[in-house]
Amino acid sequence: MKLKTKDLLTLAELSPKEFVGLIENSIKLKRELKKGGNKPILKSKTLTMIFQKPSTRTRVSFETGMYQLGGHAINLSLNDMQLSRGESVEDTAKTLSRYTDCIMARVYNHELLEKLSKHASVPVINGLSDSFHPCQILADFMTIKEKKGKLKGLKIAWVGDGNNVCNSMIYGALLSGIEMSIATPKGFEPDKTVVKESKKSTKIELTVDPFIATKNADVVVTDTYSSIHNSDPKRIKKFLPKYQVNSKLMSSAKKDAIFLHCLPAKREQEVTSSVIDGIQSVVWDEAENRLHTQKALLAALICA
Ligand code: CP
Ligand code: NVA
Fold first, then answer.
1. Cis bond leading into 134, ω under 30°?
2. How far is it, in rounded angstroms, from Cα 210 to Cα 284?
3. Which residues have C-beta within 8 Å of that of residue 251, sequence separation ≥ 6?
4. Count of CB atoms within 10 A of residue 220's CB?
5. N or C: which end of the chain has fewer CB within 10 A?
6. pLDDT tens for residues 138-186?
7. Pocket test for ligand 1, best of 49, 51, 55, 284 (most atoms within 8 A of CB)
8. SS3 for 159?
């Protein structure tokens, strides 16, 4: 499948058809892997991975994904690179484009990704920035599709911080015709422009009441109150106890609602153990699906 975009930085670069197509290909690649292995469609291809922030799932799923498709991944922390000694992003992007077939970067400032994308002749993938986490949303919506059999017409409740993952999830909702209700404390809402753009085509509701958000929801999602770029422990007081996903809040969603969390989680803060380890939780399938969606995305960006 050929994507119109060269890069994936927010998720908004995709058309609804491309978004759903990537999810369908991820499901096919998962099936193929379980039947004995994927075809080496990325043979001799190399992915550069740049990490300015820590990662477990993103790093391992991208590296394993490249390997399973016959390719190779190089892992670089920013401190290993001449970037840390002042080489420009422009020169770095041009150099890496001469060696490798794709660049995935996890960064603080989203503008760094935009600069990489502008100067790299190869695809650039956002592996998380302070503003967006598009790869996470591919895995989340694949998980929803697997569990619910459809996307269109469902309702997602987001509870907690309107952060980078929430911003990309709003774009996911827009691309798939899912309704979203987002409960955050005042001052912790998702990006205003993202909400405004998405409201044109799907229902995006902002509220301060988690019980309004979860009412009739098919999917309940939360994320940590303190992201890597936002680690002030004082933030937690603004969220607890009202914005914790616990059994009482889950019971206000539909009976068969599923619970998602991108992980890493802080148990007994944004989610109780009873929920994340309970029968409605699908977080381990969600984490596994990072592998399958990274592969579909890499294949679509590199092969085409
Ligand atoms: N969900 C996610 O991106 O996990 P990592 O930070 O471990 O990569
Ligand atoms: N919002 C979290 C997501 C981690 C995968 C962060 O940015 O740290």
1. no
2. 24
3. none
4. 28
5. C
6. 999 999 999 999 999 999 999 999 999 999 999 999 999 999 999 999 9
7. 55
8. strand
Q: Tell me if 128 sits within 8 A of 151, measured CB to CB.
A: no
To the nearest whole percent, how much of the chain has pLDDT over 70?
100
Is the pTM here over 0.85, yes or no? yes
Per-residue pLDDT tens over the stretch 257-277:
999 999 999 999 999 999 999
Task: Give me the domains of the chain, ranges plus CATH numbers.
Answer: 16-133+290-302 (3.40.50.1370), 136-286 (3.40.50.1370)
Residue 136: helix, strand or coil by DSSP? helix
72 assigned to active site: no
- Residue 304 pLDDT greater than 70, yes or no: no
**The two three-digit tokens of residue 198, written as one number:** 């998405």
- Active-site annotation holds for 98: no
Which of 57, 62, 297 has the most ligand 1 atoms within 8 A of CB, as the residue to mutate?
57
Q: Ligand 2 mean position to 293 CA, how many Å? A: 18
| Catalytic option among 262, 269, 280, 292 | 262
CA separation for the pair 181, 42 (Å, rounded): 39
Is 222 close to ligand 1, i.e. is its CB under 6 Å away? no
128 CB under 6 A from ligand 1?
yes
pLDDT tops 70 at residue 74: yes
Nearest ligand 1 atom to the CA of 135 is: 3
Q: Is the CB of 157 under 6 A from ligand 2?
A: no
Closest among 188, 165, 161 to 286, alpha carbons compared: 165
